[in-house]
Structure formats: C-alpha cells, structure tokens
Amino acid sequence: MQKRENVVPSFTPLIKQFAAFVFVSSISAVCSLIVRYVANLVMPYEVAVGLAQVAGVIIAFTLNRRFVFSGEQVLTYARIWRFTLVNVVSLAIAVTVSSLAFRIVLPNLGVSFHPDVLAQLVGLAACALPSFLGHKYFSFRAAGVR
After folding, report:
1. Residue 8, SS3 per DSSP
2. DSSP letters along 103-133, please?
3. Taking a C-beta distance cutoff of 8 angstroms, is the pair 102, 116 a contact?
4. Contacting residues for 103 by C-beta, under 8 A, at least 6 apart
5. In angstroms, rounded to a whole number, what is the distance separating the alpha carbons of residues 34 and 140?
C-alpha cells in the first residue's frame, strides 16, 4: 500500500510567523502608544497618531527584519522602499480607523475610559493582517521572487 502524501499545505510555519509578527508588532504598538500619548500633549490627535505610527514603523522594521522575516538580511533601498510603501497603506488604515473610532464610534457608544488609547488600539489592530501580508509577500520577499 502506498502512503498518500498530504495534498493540503501545512499552515503551521505561516501561523508561527504571523504569531511572531503579532508579538513584534505588539512591542512596536506599545512604543507607538507612548509616543502618541506624549505627542498628543502638544498636537492634535490625528497628527500625534501619525507621528506615533512613524516611530512604530522604525521599530517594527528593525524587529521584523531581525526576528520575523530573517531569510535574506541584505539591506537594500528597494526593501526599505517596499517596507515604507506597505506602511504608508498601514498608516492610512491606522489613522482613518483610529480617528473614526475616537471621533464617532466610541463617543456614540458612550465609552469614556481612555477612548484615545482604545481608538488607537483599534486602528493598530485593523492594519495588522494587511501589514503582515504586505511585508511577507512584498517588503521581505526573497530576491528574484515575483
């Protein structure tokens, strides 16, 4: 009797990589929250969220390159450009969702316990999966893979 091969691909490595991405992103998010809190003392909420997102991106790039997408470590301008492009999309998602949650959704739900932090967390969560997929298949893809 012939042993039948599993025709369904294993998602275990992808799930482990996504878990590592979420962990690294959590570190980045905490840093982002701190930056947004401090920046929000002197600037409007949306600008503070944008600034915090930039700080988070710098931390995320460094940690993701080292711990999550570590296959090819050659630092190229193309890789930095692709990472930046994915994060511009992520920034748009985070600021839009955070602002909608902070200005409209949470007030209408009567949330008064740190709505600024909750809104920012919702914005960060909204861009987690799109960011992971963008970085996996675009920012950190192996050289020569199209």
Report:
1. coil
2. IIIHHHHT--SSHHHHHHHHHHHHTHHHHHH
3. yes
4. none
5. 27
Enumerate residues 6+ apart whose C-beta is below 8 A from 39. Answer: 47, 48, 51, 52
**Predicted structure pTM score:** 0.70
- Over residues 100-123, the pLDDT tens digits come to 999 999 999 999 999 999 998 899
pLDDT in tens, 82-100: 888 998 898 899 889 999 9
State the amino acid at position 125 in one-letter form.
Answer: A
Supply the DSSP symbol for 71.
S
Q: Which amino acid is at 60?
A: A
Which residues, other chains included, contact 54 with Cβ-Cβ below 8 Å and sequence gap of 6+? 91
Residue boundaries of the structural domains of the chain: 12-139
- With tokens 């955070």, the residue in question is 98
Q: Which amino acid is at 63?
A: L
